[in-house]
Specification:
Layout (H helix, E strand, L loop, with lengths): L1 E4 L14 H8 L4 E5 L10 H6 L3 E3 L2 H7 L2 E3 L6 H4 L7 E4 L7 H10 L2 E4 L14 H18 L21 E5 L3 H12 L3 E6 L2 H11 L3 E5 L2 H9 L3 E4 L14 H5 L6 E4 L20 E4 L2 E4 L9 H22 L1 H7 L1 H4 L2 E4 L2 E2 L2 H7 L9
Parallel strand pairs: 1-2, 1-4, 2-3, 4-5, 5-6, 7-8, 7-10, 8-9, 10-11, 11-13
Antiparallel strand pairs: 6-14, 12-13, 14-15
């Protein structure tokens, strides 16, 4: 198979779909890999590194999209990239279609087959290709949130961990999954007071087993959510419904009643966000203020630590890339029901029920 790896073009996005070690794994199996010139230079991988791994260096993305059987990316294709997709081509990347009707329209119109990292599942019920970035984003959310509390960022001027004689900040984390548990780990390490809300008692038990008395776990209801959002200095939104739009758990009214100078970090922004006041921002302009509350809603948060993120992502995606290349996508998803769950768009049709429901469109089940 001829595999194309274009350079990412989203704002301040330095990750790349395949690192040289991944390329070598594919070329050693007889596949051809084309990598756009300087595609990995932002994270320390030169064109020479890719050439040594057996790749061909291509000058433009247009050439890669025109020739490749499969396109491997990190972020959802931008409008200019979507126009280069063609019928019969396979796209393997993050898509996050539920809050993005324009992208969905373009992917349907392209006729390409689109498999989304974020809806590939596992035997244990997890999301193995989303988990690495959720780990990164969860940990980064505390770094970003701590900075948002600084006075220079229009925050209240509070140090997350306090100092002897001065109480620490209260961090409320909504959702106890991969994002939430990693955010908690960082917040505890920085000395914050940590509260985690979740609607699963089993998740809360797991968190208590993991963190003990370093955190407070609370069953999430309308009343408890409001209580702990309004009393927080920093709120982390880490709620995920696989493939679907994130629920708007924190209303605009609740935000208006939060502490002046407090902050929110919406890690769910790729799926539309879980704060009613959230809208996507970029690393170039990451924050804005609503009712005196600092909002950090960067849609590609792990891109800020692009080398770590790329390596972690490749560790997870490589087995699936190999399977798709070796077997072809039809046979690969026939053999692997979890990879099949990643199929979002095929032949102009939406093949993910969650995406179709979120967008109010027709769902067509694909039968391998």
């Amino acid at each position: 198979m001829l595999i194309g790896v274009p350079k990412e073009i989203k704002n301040h996005e330095y990750r790349i779909g395949m690192v040289p070690a991944s390329v070598e794994e594919l070329t050693s199996r007889g596949h051809q890999v084309m990598v756009e010139a300087n595609g990995g230079v932002g994270i320390g991988f030169t064109d020479a590194d890719y050439l040594a791994a057996g790749a061909t260096i291509i000058e433009t993305a247009k050439e890669i999209f025109a020739a490749a059987d499969m396109i491997v990316k990190v972020k959802e294709p931008q409008a200019v990239e979507r126009k280069m997709l063609r019928p019969g081509q396979l796209l393997f990347t993050y898509l996050h279609l539920a809050p993005d009707p324009d992208q969905t329209d373009d992917l349907q119109a392209s006729g390409a087959t689109c498999i989304a990292y974020e809806t590939v599942t596992s035997d244990r019920g997890g999301l193995p290709l989303l988990a690495p970035m959720s780990e990164v984003a969860g940990r980064m959310s505390i770094q970003a949130g701590a900075a948002c509390l600084e006075k220079s960022k229009e925050g209240c001027g509070m140090l997350l961990g306090g100092v002897p004689g001065v109480e620490p900040a209260k961090v409320t984390i909504i959702g106890g999954g991969v994002v939430g548990s990693n955010a908690a780990r960082m917040a505890i390490g920085m000395g914050a007071q940590v509260v985690i809300l979740d609607r699963s008692v089993d998740v809360l038990r797991r968190l208590v087993s993991e963190f003990g008395t370093a955190i407070q776990t609370v069953y999430s209801s309308k009343a408890t959510l409001e209580e702990h959002v309004l009393s927080a200095d920093l709120v982390i939104g880490g709620v995920l419904i696989p493939g679907a739009a994130a629920p708007k758990l924190v209303t605009a009214d609740m935000v208006s009643r939060m502490k002046p100078g407090s902050a929110v970090v919406d890690v769910a922004i790729d799926q539309g966000g879980c704060f009613a006041t959230s809208h996507a921002t970029t690393h170039q302009d990451p924050t804005y203020i609503v009712d005196g509350v600092v909002h950090y809603c960067v849609a590609n948060m792990p891109g800020a630590v692009a080398r770590t993120s790329t390596l972690a992502l490749n560790n997870a995606t490589l087995p699936f890339i190999v399977s798709l290349a070796d077997l072809g996508w039809q046979e690969a998803i026939r053999r692997d029901k979890h990879l099949a769950n990643g199929l979002n768009v095929h032949n102009g049709q939406i093949t993910s029920k969650e995406v179709a429901d979120a967008l109010g469109r027709e769902y067509i089940s694909y039968c391998a």
